[in-house]
Each structure stands twice: as structure tokens, then as C-alpha cells.
């Protein structure tokens, strides 16, 4: 994690690992520490100091770094750290941090024994003013990652959860009855929204808990089809189990103790409003919850003893808290205020209300209202309510919300069993008329949603099947990681009227941690030199996996060669097609600076019809003689190379180390 990649210089000091709630970040931290403590891994590190933000939040006053360490880890009392020790600090749960972290305002601190506020100590440690030799590992939900300035982070990693194969492995390993396991796998596959959510391990657990119970008694048609229905069934199951275990009630009794569920839901709602995942005994009491009875809801809420701070409480997963908060809002908020909930969720910069909104709206379905009927004090016409909220959501699309919020609105429509916009797009796609359509903002979002929830993976992404424009590519890139979800990672976007604007967007794809893009064909698009400059910035990224770049006939000049030459010695590129561009001898000369470097791994170079003359051919031959072991295919057709140029190429072919297999 802290090791340099090939071609990287400097040192990786600070790593930021992000992932959604429940994806396994804290488990990764615990496994890392366990491997170190048992002598299995990371033995070059002398001290590891795990300091979770949820515990740091509770530390008040002014303290030195050594005071903080010895308080949480008393065994270290008397130790004075210096750069002679190799140490690692692990700060788990940045999203739970309530410390200001004022990186740009705090004074500098360099003495590990000097007392200061926790804010000052932490920011100086992360910036490297304190213990510059220390390694720093921070974990966070994506929404909170921006709390750490980019210049303070050397590497960003991501915990992505289960892939499709691992999802099925989880179900088959968790359930001993393989017939039952197959039933659950088949059911999850049928519901795309459920299948997508199953990349989170804890959601797989919820699904197994619910589906195994239901499928033992009923057939598939009665199993949950939406996220809201799954969580409602989970709440019922956990309540029934709690009743049986702690109060001896029969399974057939109505499971709800209205007061207890409302109190727990109120707690969830209040803490979600404060964006808080951890709460205390006083919080429970303020909602009318008897802490001695909290064990009856152990499947929903958990308690643990935190070092030096006593007992704290939390829901077993953030999504459980969001569901219960939505349940409280649904029961207590009148229908007309649900539009306000939509507006509030859309204004959320980090989307922390997205799932809450899906649950809130999903509860208005008649089938879900029946499941929670014991909690409702009054019922209205759920059909009328549903129609009104569907129309309101469609109206919000006209305001052109961010791609992330747009996609969540479609998940909301999915929870409401409304697929009218999706059917419009599917009609366009099946008729082959999509490439000629003028889509509204809602239809654009529908297109992204259809691609995201498609059962089959794309073998090839071909923009020509959609709409040939910068706008289309940008909407698909920002609304859906479509270039990262293809099976073969082959993208064809040639002849699509793309400009440098699209290359700026592709820069983000190329440098993405999750990018799997290996072939990019941008030929016959007027991207010009500025577009290649954007692409080159992406190619510089250590995360870029691109192997083949085709920018044939893209209105390029020798300036593009300057940009490409800076990355050919450090990128993963193996094939480069620059044919039919006005590169001239001067452009080839710039490429040759990279080609003669042994670090350049290019194997295929196409320079057909690039206005190259004798001098350019001589420079090319000379460069390849200096580094003859990589290029296997060279295309120089339709260039005026002259006799001397051909003579130079012949000298290259005589070189015993030359690996050139095909020369055109």
C-alpha cells in the first residue's frame, strides 16, 4: 500500500482509503494490525498506533502527540518518538470526525512533546510537520474524503466490496443448503437494484437473513423485489426474533411494539440529521429508550465499550439507521411534506440522504404499507400519494440535478414501481433511433440508469450507438462509470464529433483508481493538440492502465508529440496510432526523445501519412537503434522518406538486437 509503483519517485507517506459504509474499511485495518502483531506481515514497522476518530472525538483539551498516544495506549507511557523509529498512525473513520481539522489556519507544530489542541496536533501530523518519517493511513466514506487537502495525500485507494462472483460465493458459503443458496442467488439476480447493493457485504447478510426465512415458507413471487421491501422484512424478522428471545411472545403475534419501534426510529432520524453514527446513553433516554432493554433489538442496534469512554451505541449498519429514520419520517410526516424531503436530498452535496429518500418514498407503496400497518395511525390513498410524488420527481429532472442525484431519483422511481421513463429509453434503444434522438434531462438520466442496471456487461462501448457529441460522452462518463464496467475494457468513440472537451473528461477516467480502460480509440475526432495534452495528463497517472491509444486523423500537429513524449517512458502504453496527422519531422524528433529511452515500452507505432521526410526518418532510425528491443511494428506509409531515409531503416534492420517484425 505504501510501496512506490514502477516509474514513481519520492515516498508514499499518507494513504487515504475510501469506501461506502459497511464495505469493509475497518476490517481491512484490523486485518493489517493483526498480521503485524502476529509477525506475519509489515515487520519493518516498529510501532502501529490505531487512533479511531470516534474515540479521538471524545478527547478534550490541549495535549501533546505523546500524551494522546499514551492516553489511548498506556503501554507506550514514557516513550518519546523520533524519526529513528518507523511508525504508522491509523486514523479509521474520518467520516465520523467532529474535530475541525483546520489545515490552512492552524499554527505549525514540530515537537511531539508540545501540547496543543487535538485539531493542531492532528493536522500537523498529517501535513508532515510532526514526525515527517511516519506513515499515515486514513480511512473514510467518500463524502468526507475532501476533509483532507489533496496535497496532504500521496495515494488514494478504495475498498470496492464484492464483485459479482464474490457475491455468489458469499451466499453459497453462508448457506449450507445449496438448493436454498441457489434460490437466493437466482432471486438476487432478478432484481438489479438488489444485485447492485449486494456489493456491500452487510447487505448480503441482510438479504440472506430475509430471503432464507421467506423462501423456507413461500415461493419466489412473495419475496422482496425492492430495497424498501427487503429492509421492511428485515425489521419484521429482527423484531419477531427479539420478541421470541426476550419476551417469549409467539411468532404469530403482531410483532410491533409501537412505542419501542417509534422510539428507535426517532433516535435514528435525529442522529441522521446530525450525520452521527455513534450515540450515547443520554441520546437513548431523550428518545424514551430504556438502555436495559436495548438488547431486544440487537439485530438492529448494537452497543460496545469504548476504551476510557464507557458504553456507546450504533446501528449495525448505516443503511439500517437510514431505513429506521425513513420509517419515523413516514409515520410522523404528512404526505405533502415528502416533496420537501426530495428537495433536501437533492441539495445534499455528498448524497448522505440518498438512501433515506429511497426508503421514505418506497414506504408509500401499498404493499409496504401493509407490512407496517401496525405502526400507522392513519392511512390515506397510497395510490394518489404515489402518483403525486412520481410527478414531482419527474418535475425535478427538469432542474438538471447532478448525475449522482439524478441516478438516485431513478432508484426512487424504482422503489415506487414506476418505469415509464425507462421504457421510453428502452423503446429508443430497441428501435435503433437513439442516436438521432434529442433527449430531455430526465431521459438522459434514464439512459444512464438503463445502462447501470443492465443485466449484461458491455463487451464494447461504442458511442456511435448513442449520440455522437461531447455532451453525450460527458453525461455518460459523469453519470455512470460505463468505461470502467465493460467486460473487455475496449472503447470505440471514433467518428463522434468529439473535441478537447471530451478529452478533459476522459482524463478523469484514465486516472481513476477503478479504471480498467486498456484501449481507447478516438480516431477521426477533432480533438486537436489541446485534447492530447489532456489525455497525456491522464496517462501520467500511476493508476492508468491504458495500453492502446488510437488518435488517427484528429487534427494534430507536432505539439501533440511533445505532450506524448513526456509520458511514453512512464506509461503502460504498448500501441500508439498517430496516422494521418500533420506531425512533420519536428514532431517525430520530439517522439524520438522518448523512443530512445530504455524505459519506453512501445511495441507498435503507426505514423502513416504524417508528412515525415528524410530528416524525420533519420531521427526515428537513430532512436530505435539506441533502443531496439521493444518496437515490433512500424508503419511509415505515405511519407516522403527518400533514399537516405530508407537506407537508415535498413541499417536499423541489420541491428542484431532489433525486434522489428513488420515494417510498412
UniProtKB/TrEMBL annotation:
<keyword id="KW-0547">Nucleotide-binding</keyword>
<dbReference type="Pfam" id="PF13516">
    <property type="entry name" value="LRR_6"/>
</dbReference>
<feature type="domain" description="NACHT">
    <location>
        <begin position="13"/>
        <end position="144"/>
    </location>
</feature>
<dbReference type="Pfam" id="PF17779">
    <property type="entry name" value="WHD_NOD2"/>
</dbReference>
<dbReference type="Pfam" id="PF05729">
    <property type="entry name" value="NACHT"/>
</dbReference>
<keyword id="KW-0677">Repeat</keyword>
<keyword id="KW-0963">Cytoplasm</keyword>
<dbReference type="GO" id="GO:0005524">
    <property type="term" value="F:ATP binding"/>
</dbReference>
<dbReference type="InterPro" id="IPR051261">
    <property type="entry name" value="NLR"/>
</dbReference>
<dbReference type="Pfam" id="PF17776">
    <property type="entry name" value="NLRC4_HD2"/>
</dbReference>
<protein>
    <recommendedName>
        <fullName>NACHT domain-containing protein</fullName>
    </recommendedName>
</protein>
<keyword id="KW-0067">ATP-binding</keyword>
<dbReference type="InterPro" id="IPR032675">
    <property type="entry name" value="LRR_dom_sf"/>
</dbReference>
<dbReference type="GO" id="GO:0005737">
    <property type="term" value="C:cytoplasm"/>
</dbReference>
<dbReference type="InterPro" id="IPR027417">
    <property type="entry name" value="P-loop_NTPase"/>
</dbReference>
<dbReference type="InterPro" id="IPR041267">
    <property type="entry name" value="NLRP_HD2"/>
</dbReference>
<dbReference type="InterPro" id="IPR041075">
    <property type="entry name" value="NOD1/2_WH"/>
</dbReference>
<dbReference type="InterPro" id="IPR001611">
    <property type="entry name" value="Leu-rich_rpt"/>
</dbReference>
<dbReference type="InterPro" id="IPR007111">
    <property type="entry name" value="NACHT_NTPase"/>
</dbReference>
<keyword id="KW-0433">Leucine-rich repeat</keyword>
Amino acid at each position: 500500500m505504501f510501496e512506490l509503483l514502477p516509474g514513481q519517485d519520492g515516498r508514499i507517506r499518507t494513504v487515504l482509503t475510501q469506501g461506502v459504509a459497511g464495505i469493509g474499511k475497518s476490517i481491512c485495518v484490523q486485518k493489517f494490525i493483526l498480521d503485524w502483531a502476529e509477525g506475519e506481515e509489515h515487520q519493518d514497522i516498529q510501532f502501529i498506533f490505531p487512533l479511531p476518530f470516534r474515540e479521538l472525538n471524545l478527547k478534550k483539551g490541549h495535549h501533546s502527540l505523546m500524551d494522546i498516544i499514551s492516553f489511548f495506549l498506556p503501554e507506550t507511557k514514557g516513550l518519546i518518538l523520533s524519526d529513528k523509529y518507523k511508525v504508522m498512525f491509523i486514523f479509521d473513520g474520518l467520516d465520523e470526525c467532529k474535530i475541525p481539522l483546520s489545515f490552512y489556519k492552524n499554527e505549525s507544530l514540530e515537537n511531539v512533546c508540545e501540547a496543543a489542541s487535538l485539531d493542531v496536533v492532528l493536522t500537523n501530523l498529517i501535513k508532515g510537520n510532526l514526525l515527517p518519517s511516519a506513515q499515515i493511513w486514513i480511512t473514510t466514506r467518500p463524502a468526507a474524503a475532501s476533509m483532507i487537502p489533496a496535497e496532504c495525500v500521496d495515494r488514494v485507494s478504495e475498498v470496492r466490496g464484492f464483485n459479482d462472483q464474490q457475491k455468489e460465493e458469499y451466499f453459497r458459503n453462508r448457506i449450507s443448503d445449496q438448493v436454498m443458496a441457489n434460490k437466493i442467488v437466482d432471486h438476487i439476480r432478478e432484481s438489479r437494484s438488489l444485485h447492485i447493493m449486494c456489493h456491500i457485504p452487510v447487505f448480503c447478510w441482510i438479504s440472506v437473513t430475509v430471503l432464507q426465512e421467506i423462501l423456507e415458507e413461500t415461493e419466489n413471487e412473495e419475496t422482496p423485489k425492492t430495497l424498501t421491501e427487503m429492509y421492511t422484512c428485515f425489521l419484521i424478522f429482527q423484531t419477531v426474533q427479539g420478541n421470541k428471545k426476550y419476551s417469549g411472545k409467539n411468532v404469530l403475534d403482531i410483532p410491533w411494539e409501537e412505542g419501542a419501534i417509534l422510539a428507535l426510529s426517532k433516535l435514528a432520524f435525529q442522529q441522521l440529521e446530525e450525520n452521527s453514527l455513534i450515540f450515547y446513553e443520554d441520546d437513548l433516554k431523550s428518545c424514551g429508550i430504556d438502555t436495559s432493554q436495548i438488547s431486544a433489538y440487537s439485530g438492529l442496534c448494537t452497543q460496545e465499550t469504548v476504551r476510557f469512554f464507557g458504553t456507546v451505541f450504533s446501528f449495525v449498519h448505516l443503511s439500517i439507521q437510514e431505513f429506521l429514520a425513513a420509517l419515523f419520517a413516514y409515520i410522523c410526516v404528512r404526505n405533502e411534506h415528502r416533496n420537501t424531503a426530495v428537495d433536501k436530498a437533492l441539495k445534499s452535496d455528498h448524497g448522505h440522504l440518498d438512501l433515506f429518500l429511497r426508503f421514505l418514498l418506497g414506504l408509500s407503496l401499498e404493499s409496504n404499507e401493509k407490512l407496517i400497518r401496525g405502526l400507522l395511525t392513519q392511512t390515506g390513498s397510497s395510490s394518489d400519494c404515489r402518483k403525486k410524488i412520481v410527478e414531482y420527481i419527474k418535475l425535478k429532472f427538469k432542474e438538471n440535478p447532478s448525475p449522482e442525484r439524478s441516478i438516485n431519483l431513478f432508484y426512487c422511481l424504482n422503489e415506487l414501481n414506476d418505469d415509464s421513463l425507462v421504457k421510453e429509453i428502452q423503446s429508443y434503444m430497441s428501435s435503433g433511433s437513439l442516436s438521432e434522438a434529442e433527449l430531455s434531462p430526465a431521459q438522459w438520466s434514464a439512459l444512464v440508469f438503463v445502462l447501470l442496471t443492465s443485466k449484461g456487461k458491455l463487451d464494447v462501448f461504442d458511442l456511435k450507438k448513442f449520440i455522437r457529441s461531447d455532451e453525450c460522452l460527458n453525461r455518460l462518463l459523469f453519470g455512470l462509470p460505463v468505461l470502467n464496467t465493460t467486460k473487455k475494457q475496449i472503447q470505440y468513440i471514433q467518428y463522434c464529433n468529439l473535441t478537447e472537451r471530451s478529452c478533459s473528461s476522459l482524463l478523469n477516467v484514465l486516472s481513476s483508481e477503478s479504471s480498467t480502460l486498456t484501449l481507447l480509440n478516438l480516431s477521426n475526432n477533432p480533438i486537436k493538440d489541446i485534447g492530447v495534452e489532456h489525455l497525456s495528463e491522464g496517462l501520467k497517472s500511476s493508476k492508468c492502465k491504458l495500453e492502446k491509444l488510437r488518435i488517427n486523423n484528429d487534427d494534430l500537429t507536432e505539439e501533440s508529440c511533445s505532450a506524448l513524449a513526456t509520458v511514453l517512458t512512464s506509461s503502460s502504453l504498448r500501441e500508439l496510432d498517430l496516422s494521418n496527422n500533420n506531425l512533420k519531422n519536428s514532431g517525430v524528433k520530439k517522439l524520438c526523445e522518448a523512443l530512445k529511452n530504455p524505459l519506453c515500452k512501445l511495441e507498435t507505432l503507426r505514423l502513416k501519412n504524417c508528412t515525415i521526410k528524410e530528416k524525420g526518418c533519420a531521427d526515428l532510425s537513430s532512436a530505435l537503434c539506441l533502443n531496439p528491443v521493444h518496437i515490433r511494428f512500424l508503419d511509415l506509409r505515405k511519407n516522403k522518406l527518400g533514399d537516405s531515409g530508407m537506407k537508415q531503416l535498413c541499417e536499423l534492420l541489420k541491428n542484431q538486437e532489433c525486434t522489428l517484425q513488420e515494417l510498412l
